[in-house]
Amino acid sequence: MQRLSQFWHAGSSHTYRTLLIAGAILLTVFALVTQAFAWSGPLPVPGSQSTEVFNPRVAVDDAGFVHVTWMFTPGGNTGDVYYVRGELDAAGTAITWQGVQVIHRSSAREFAAGARVAVGSDGIVHVVFIDGSSNVVYYRNEQRGEPGQWISEAVFSGNSFATSVDLDLDATNIPFIAWSDGVGDGRSNAAFAYRAGPNGWVPAFVGPNTYLARNVSIAVAGTGPAAGVHIVYEYQDSQNTTWKAGYARGNRDGGDFTIVPISGQFGFTRTAWFPDIAYDRSTGILYMTQIFQVGDRFWQGYGIAFSSSPDGGITWAPPARLIATENPHAGDPHIIAAEGIVHFSMELKGLRSNNYVRALQQAHYMTFNAATGAYSTPVKVSQDGEKASIVDIGIGARAKVITWAVEDIRGVKYNVDPGGIQPPVPPTPTPIPATPTPTPPPNPQGRLSILDPTNLNDRMTRSQQVKAQFGIVNAIEGRAYGYDLSNDGSNFSPRDNLPSNNTVDWTMAPAAGVACEARTIRGRLYDGETGLSSEILEASIMYDPGVDVAVTVENPFLQRNLTQIQASGALLQDFGGAGAMAGDPSFTRSPFYFGSVTRNPGECNSIQDVRFGQITPATSINGVPSGLIPIDQFNPQDGDYTVTIEVTDSIGNRRTFNGFTMTLDRTAPQITGVYTSAMQIVNASNSPISTVSTPLVDIRFTDLEITDTGYGEKNSNKPFFGVWLANSTQRFDLTDESQLAAVNNLDWRGVEVANATNNGEGAFTFTVRNWSVFTGLQSMQGGRDQYIYARVIDGAGNASVVTLESQRITLEQGVSPFRQYLPFTVRQ
Amino acid sequence: MKRYPLFIAAGLVVTLLLVVVSGQAFSERSPQVAEQVAPTAIDRSPSEMSTIIIGSPMPDPPPFPTVEFPAVEPLPAAPELDPILANEQEVARYTFDGSDLDDLSGWRFGQIQPDPAGVVAWSVWNGALSSPYNDLSMYPLNDVLAIAPDALAGNGALEGQVALDYNTHAGFLLGYADDQNYVVGMFGSANAPRFPGITLMHVVAGQATVLASEPEFKVDNDWHTLRLAVVGTTITMTLDGSPVATGTLATPLLGTGVGAYAGSDGGALFDNLRLVQQQ
Questions:
Q1: Could B166 and A320 be called an inter-chain contact, meaning their C-beta atoms sit closer than 8 Å?
Q2: Does domain B89-278 have CATH number 3.40.640.10?
């Protein structure tokens, strides 16, 4: 779209010789002008400071007037159109602004679109916008924007859901308006109309009959019925799909338009948006920009794709990729092309973490010189610390002006540079080529993607065999290309011919294990005719070769497992057991066990399915199916059960874990023989004591005859796991069954006995050291008598029926609980 | 009496000047409106799309000048949550360990205004749930929602770590029934264009009722522990352990969904989310 005057395109009385001299001088100047900027701002546009202002646009004429429009949405419910005119000083460095004018008030729909402003060489100011009822409304002011001189005309009112609008003038100042009608049902189109006279607008739909279209831009090349109408737009094939950029080309009067899915043909498979198009009348070259997404993730960058067409849009050059960096990202470029120079205004956005920093979203300006192929360095024109968006540019004879919206105060700011469009060089018979013929032939340029062979995504694969897909951005039609690839960046495969689909099978280096590995594959393209190679191209993919998890199959009554079972919401009933929360991890006294699967750090995908035997856990821990698992058998009897675990991750890797055995043991150990004095509280010499002066005591068990089925049968040298101990200030008669409940209600603690001596006849002697006489007691004080009771437990936590009793001990007055902990046992 | 003509003349001059100045300063005069005729359009769209022949490539930047941009320290990892309250039980936990790239299976996404272009998905970035830029939307300011796989029936809370990258707003949802019915408790940066400070809002059929608001409440760009709790009809919002907003629902919550709410242009991170139910 153009936002400059065509003053110099009107008939000229100068001689060609004069113009040639001036042109030669100016061509020299151009190379300097693009780098020698003198931006004098930024400054606010007076009268625009409101929280409801958006979408400012600018046009500059050769008489030195600056025309700025914006939309105003009081309460977010309407789309009023405001206009303000400024006047440049003679040097083109400062603007004197006049009063703000309200061109139009809208009251119907929530979001109107536009407005756009242009000014012709005749000084007529044109403004177009979508009103609140989806109508395309045009205003003109034939007095250079003077108040009270606005005249409206209806352009088109048959839209269902107009979403955007744009405006350009042909060389005779006839306005052309393009808009998009985003119906959302496969009938969404770009459309255009030109003004054949007062209220004589001629509208036409041009395509692409898609799901949705928006963000339209128009450029007009030539004049009269055969004038070329060039429209770019964003479109969506269907709901929830990415936006693409489309291009439509046709003549002003008659004939179908040619519709081109331009972003796809440029090789952009990800989001492409904010297309803009401009026509340089001095060279006959069309220019197009669009934003393209660099990688799958948005923070990998948004660059500007910049292309040109020297033949009226029939062919377009493979685009240059500008500012395709991870930081900053480019956004919403607008271009003006005149006298061999393309002027860019654009947003550059700085990132922190994965998000844009508003204070680092700034308006920038840069140029492209078609004669030299040189780009200028982008220059920041906006204010540090303020988010700038909707950056627009207008150029007249005296100056170029850039405007933008400042989000935090929601006003309009501008900057001005005195380097305006200079008088034209005479038209030359042949257009200045935008793309100098490369000599010698160019090296192939392209990109490389590594794809999963099944779903062709370039992020993740579980296959060592992948697809390597090349893209050649400067492919010469009919030319054969070759390639080579490398897993390590130094050892490349023998060069081979690249098939027509540019995709080859490739075997990555084997995985070291089952953990995920980020793989980078490198490759080169070769021109089959010249043998020239591209630079080394790189592509990365995450390789997940297996299921990297840790699996647990354990006694559910262990404290560490009980905690997780309870957290999962499952209820573990202790059928017949005494509740000892200690034992052997591979035993259970319930027909359940604790099964869990934990992702190791090397697992980069989620766990999709877990099966313990045939059973999928009903609960989950940390998002992975785990918890209390029933033994996979109806009414299981005591004995051994083999557990096989199968884990499947979300990418389809499956891994089977074998070798887990759980023993169901519901039989309590038995204490036989004489045991009435088998338990004694002893001193360091293993002699019984009657008084204690510290809270920690040693408990000696002597010649305790123990038998056990289940756990005991597997541990004949020590057929018990440990003892269950409880302190009491009350002595119980263990022969009195009426006192059994009170004994059971003592606070019992399991203590593993690691080593015990066996006299060879099933009698065991061991000492539990440093047992605190206060463990489990509410009252902790000296000066009283106490007793210790004990039961024997097996690996499953079953406790013996027989309860042992220590002798009475008297705690001296000064005994106090300085510390409590469970004791170790030592070999006797 | 002889002075009256002078006063009248001076008054006329002043009046004339005022009219001219006011017209220059702010003109709202009605434009000349020509007859509004809506022309009909002809269809010049082709039956199918065309391909183009790609010509010689554009000159690539040789080399393109580097754009110097200031670097900003990345956000550190989110801290862990405090232990669960004694009278509550954990229903679900979402930790976004960062290794799953886009793995948000079970989550659903929405936006506050129905949009024909569709719904933009959220993502996991660097160990956190990241709100997207709703660039898919046809509308500006179309805030985005992410609904967790689990629901909360009865009394309980959603709690977790939330960070704002500069001027945006973000918070938690409770009682989510659909994109038009939920309660949201959120906080915004001081310079956020919308919802700065603290906002507690009940949205019914798309219409928002502000239950509590503290626009001057200052929140920086680091991680903050946010908790949005419902007990009966009382909604309580707690930030970094301190109650910041309380409101009473005029009508019951219509759903049981919970999730995250964020401004339409990204910049919000969520991590270590925990859904708890009161026992």
A1: no
A2: no
